[in-house]
TrEMBL record, chains A, B:
The keyword Ribonucleoprotein does not apply. It comes from the Bacteria. It comes from Thauera terpenica 58Eu. One of its GO terms (molecular function) is DNA binding. Residues 144-209 form the HTH luxR-type domain. SMART domains: HTH_LUXR, REC. GO terms for biological process: phosphorelay signal transduction system; regulation of DNA-templated transcription. SUPFAM superfamilies: C-terminal effector domain of the bipartite response regulators (SSF46894), CheY-like (SSF52172). This is LuxR family transcriptional regulator. Keywords: DNA-binding, Phosphoprotein, Transcription, Transcription regulation. Residues 4-120 form the Response regulatory domain. PROSITE patterns: HTH_LUXR_1 (PS00622), HTH_LUXR_2 (PS50043), RESPONSE_REGULATORY (PS50110). The modification 4-aspartylphosphate is found at residue 55. InterPro entries: CheY-like_superfamily (IPR011006), NreC/VraR/RcsB-like_REC (IPR058245), Sig_transdc_resp-reg_C-effctor (IPR016032), Sig_transdc_resp-reg_receiver (IPR001789), Tscrpt_reg_LuxR_C (IPR000792), WalR-like (IPR039420).
Length: 218, 218
DNA sequence: TTCGGCATACCGGTTTACCGGTAGTTCGCG
DNA sequence: CGCGAACTACCGGTAAACCGGTATGCCGAA
């Protein structure tokens, strides 16, 4: 029986290339690709999916948020996070969202195949450099889950859009809420994190992995 | 006769995937991969290479600098820039460095094949979204080749302070100049780079290395 | 020497961010 | 049930950013 896999990444070229690579494995079946979180949620609502490989650094709904919503709809799906970065907080957040695997793009593609093999059996898999980072962090912080910020899902969503350079008005349109509400969210975020302007919010979002370092378009 | 191609990207997974994809083309021969500029220069000194696909956003020696040095050693090699973003300045700089092609990762992989086909014949190829960005820039700036988008030393200094979260007033104090002058600098920076708010300035400063993202030991 | 680039500085105006409140709804939990 | 958390929404006000323009002195290149 073949494994049905969905690839989610904002770079079409990376998706195509990864598809070409995974299709060399006879037991894998790439059933769909998604360029963003919204497309991904549509896809998993339409067809049978076993494993989702999802990029963390996607514009709009990011990979962590998408994972959260995806698993709320289909808890049986195994999620593997793909990322360019190995930030500690980043990994923790994704695992808390319910993902089973985490592999950085700097690793060899064999690591992804290994992750697929592990999560298929319900086991967790972290690629070497990530598991090392998490392990070293555990030595200093006994309870990573409860520590750090505690932004709500909505707040993370707003923060990401702020860090992408959108004004409150545009964010409000995007989320179908009032601009005043967006400003309340921003103020709550700033209060929780002890930050005082959008530059600091942007830096926090980038460093924490909520927003990728670079985004496309001009 | 097969085309000898080298792939340069800091993400091993992307290189492997791209190799799998390009190897489906019978006339292409992937002879080597490089994770950074130094490795790339070593490779082209050791074997026959026709085309190099190089990522712009590599740590250490970036793609533009690597292209410059590569073509100084082997001017006959055709270089195609691969990038996650379509920033105008990067396109201009890369073309000035001597590259013939520029394709963003957000584009389909067919765009890369098209670029390979074009540069093989010595022709320039820019993928649609990039050529659009360059064309729109041409309307406002008659001479892009002269790299008029280069920031002055003072502008870089101001940009760094902006990206650290300081207001114009504070920056003015720090530099012992008037706040109005700081604002002129900021506007000139934004005009040169095609950016429109401090969030975009912050992101630019971070990914261009003007302002570092402090990594807490990960 | 004329020209352009750079840094300096100010004017006026619009938009957005930032800060302080208040307050309604929903939803889950003890 | 009552309570708190989260999300929603508005009010008023100040500060800062953003967008035009104009202008001066300096310096190096054509």
């Amino acid at each position: 029986m073949k494994l049905n896999i969905v690839l989610a990444d904002d770079h079409q070229m990376f998706r195509h290339a990864l598809r070409a690579l995974l299709e060399k494995e006879p037991h894998l079946n790439i059933v769909a690709e998604a360029a963003d979180g919204e497309a991904l949620l549509r896809i998993i609502g339409e067809q049978a999916v076993d494993i989702v490989c999802i990029d963390i650094g996607m514009p709009g709904m990011n990979g962590i948020e998408a994972t959260r919503r995806l698993l709320a709809l289909r808890p049986e799906i195994r999620v593997i996070g793909l990322s360019a970065y190995s930030d500690r907080q980043f990994v923790i957040d994704l695992l808390n969202a319910g993902a089973l695997g985490y592999v950085t793009k700097a690793e060899a593609s064999e690591e992804l195949l290994r992750a697929i093999h592990h999560v298929q059996q319900g086991r967790t898999y972290l690629c070497p450099d990530v598991s090392g980072a998490v392990a070293s962090a555990l030595r200093f912080d006994t309870d990573l889950r409860a520590s750090s910020h505690t932004l709500t899902a909505r707040e993370r969503q707003v923060l990401q859009l702020i860090a992408e350079g959108h004004t409150s008005a545009r964010i409000a349109e995007r989320l179908h809420i009032a601009a005043s509400t967006v400003e309340v969210h921003r103020r709550n975020i700033m209060r929780k994190l002890g930050l005082h302007n959008v530059v600091e919010l942007t830096r926090y979002a980038i460093h924490s992995g909520i927003s990728p370092v670079v985004d496309d378009g001009a």
